[in-house]
Amino acid sequence: MIKHYNDYVQEMVNLMVESGFGEYGRTARKRWYEAFGRYLSEAGLVYSDENVSKWLEEVVKPANTRQQYHVTARYMEQLREFIRTGEIRIENLLLVKPDHDKLPPEIRGTLDEYLASREPDYSPESMRLAKLHTANFLLRLCAEGMMRMEMLSYEILAAVFRSRWNVTPEQRSVILSHGRQLLGFLHEKHGFRRGFSILLEDSVFQYAYVPGLSDDAVMTELLRLSREHSVCTTEEMYLMIARFADGYSDRGYSYTMIKRVTHTLRCLYVFLDMHGLDYSSC
């Protein structure tokens, strides 16, 4: 029976290879399956649900973290399915449902539309990473209360930006980059606010976002000035930024100076748009 058990283990590993399952996942499962096989051999036991449970409780649980215990139990449940049916659905090999599949259907549809627009220019690996990171970004928006794309707001984006990410700074930067690309697509194709993607730039957020300003007396005064001394809308202002930069260039200003001016105007644009203000002369 031990030999038969080991055959099942090898067949399952082969299935994971054929299905394109990652090397880490294959190696981790095989290591625990072989550990259980040794347990059976040393104890003179045969494979059974009862012996699996006994091994998990008496051997695995006392010597490992709670998380590792639950992961190993999940591994053994997957092997049990394979031994009993001769097959296993590849999605059952995943310990956690992919972020893409966790999204509400409507939001998942928006993501799929965005990914389809990228397909002509992306390699299969780039598509995989775009799907992974953009879905992660959208899940963070959902966690802040966005149940439909139409609910997206500056407030939700700011809450995500300021939240605890529990990833490395490099990973956070990659996820935000993919998020900005998605938001740029939504602006071009569906009329979402242009400033959504700009706000999520680290160099912009720290200047454009002012916590609690909506409840401040200053905001009341800004709204008054915007109404009484409006020069143009924020969108009109944004479209003039490039012309403004060209004017600086024509007058011989340095690239560094032009970059600083452009950055300042982009921050101002997002601030004004976020609060529903026009560009005013005051």
Mind describing the biggest β-sheet? Answer: 2 strands, antiparallel
Q: Give the overall form.
A: elongated
Question: Would you tell me which CATH topology of the largest domain applies?
Answer: DNA polymerase, domain 1
The share of residues in helices is over 70%
Question: What's the CATH architecture of the largest domain?
Answer: Orthogonal Bundle
Distance between the termini: 85 Å
Neighbour order of strands in the largest sheet: 1-2
CATH class of the largest domain: Mainly Alpha
- Tell me the count of domains: 3
Mean pLDDT score: 86
Which spans of ≥5 residues are poorly predicted at pLDDT below 50?
none
The proportion of residues in beta strands is: under 5%
Number of helices: 14
Instruction: Label the structural class.
Output: mainly alpha
Beta strands, count: 2
Helix and strand run = HHHHHHHHHHHHEHHE
Summarize the structure.
The chain is mainly α. The chain has 14 helices and 2 strands, in the order H-H-H-H-H-H-H-H-H-H-H-H-E-H-H-E.
